[in-house]
Amino acid sequence: MLYRTTVDVDAPAAAVWAIVRDVETWPSWTPTMSTVELQDSAFEPGATVRVSQPGRKPDVYTVLAVDDRRFLWAARKTGFRQWADHRVEGLGRDRCRVELAFGIDGTLGPVVGPLSRRTVVRFVDTEAAALKARAEG
């Protein structure tokens, strides 16, 4: 299962990226996050992040990749892996495009993915809209 959405934001890419990368502040601007706790000293590949979301058990994500406009993290579960990709692309001096993607793969992915799809779509779309509001507000 893969769900991907994009949103254009009327704000500089660097400013939006600063919001996206500061994962521990997400609960202050998106209702899809209860707590986000970096478990390591730096947000870099290999770091772990404990994520609690409303109505769900906490997950521990491992940061797989980070650069100046993108990060990817994943959480392993029994029989499947869930992952999220976050990208910010500049569209000019004061405008950018944000792409958020969430996937579920692995042996049980074909079962878990369809069962989770409605929640995934709702959460990812909410996060995109909340990020846009935060960055433009």
From TrEMBL:
Protein name from the UniProt record: SRPBCC family protein
Pfam families, alphabetized: Polyketide_cyc2
Gene3D superfamilies assigned to the protein according to its UniProt record, in alphabetical order: 3.30.530.20
SUPFAM superfamilies named in the record: Bet v1-like
